[in-house]
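Students often ask what a 'structure token' actually looks like in practice. Rather than answer in the abstract, let us consider Thiamine-monophosphate kinase, a protein of 323 residues. Its sequence is given first.
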Amino acid sequence: MSEFDLIGRYFAALGPERSDVVLGVGDDCALLEIPAGQTLAVSIDTLASGVHFFADCDPEHIGHKSLAVGLSDLAAMGAEPAWATLALTLPESDENWIRAFATGFGRLASAHGMRLVGGDTTRGPLSVAVQVHGLVPTGAAIRRSGARPGEAIFVSGTLGDAGLALRRKLAGEPVAPELWHRLECPEPRVALGRHLRGIASAMIDLSDGLAGDLGHILAASAVGAELELERLPLTSWVAEVVAATDDWSLPLASGDDYELCFCVPPAHIPVVERLSETLGLTLTQVGWIRSDAGLDVRRPDGGQLRMPARGYDHFPAANDGAD
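Now compare that with the structural description of the same chain:
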């Protein structure tokens, strides 16, 4: 297939029709209408073979995850998904691979009402860059900078599953299908983000680990926090590893959870509890915001856990001298 055959056959009609798309795939630019009273939220992520996914990863899963990570960013702002653009770099024009990739991407896009409106295809080492666009009522976006002392810290879902799947894969050990699915096909918490508008004061998605990502909220809000390890929501797989090794890095720093971490005033805690029931999603209070700077992590025995509060970093050596 030529580049244009590839685009026309697999990417020209991904996602549902939207009335705010004046012109989509096929021209030099997409033309999009932003509804009155809405603010545009934009994020972009690149996934590279050998860094974000294994070279032999199911292309349908790559398609899913390449969009899911951006949808998770939109969720963290309380935004409603609208449009996406895709830049796909391929070592060859493998029609079976492209078909499967488009299936995974398109299924998730349709589930969230998102339309693919443009992009680019090139030849080279396998990588996928997706830019997502969402809409949020003006003034309603949830930022990282709104946390205040006395507020409760919540997380959605469970922590450390994707990290454990990766650890076992790299060690050549068996990986439970449920764990593998958490790594390759994360579920962005879009509905939760939307429902938290007006309830959460600050929010972030957990892509690089709870300790590091919560640290971004603390820095932006000029506050500190205390986490209680015994409150962390863990599956039996992760809990068994922690119990056997006393290694808390899986739920705190392994990354790829794509859950939401958010802060709420005490008066809103009952609202969050009801929201958990409404959405059928576990929402767990794991700590509190305080005025003193820094992050303290309290062990189940009451002692302090000593560990670096840093998640995944693509260029760690470049930052060593600045810490």
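One point worth highlighting: The first strand starts at residue 21 and ends at 23. Ask yourself how you might have guessed this from the sequence alone, and why that guess would often be unreliable.
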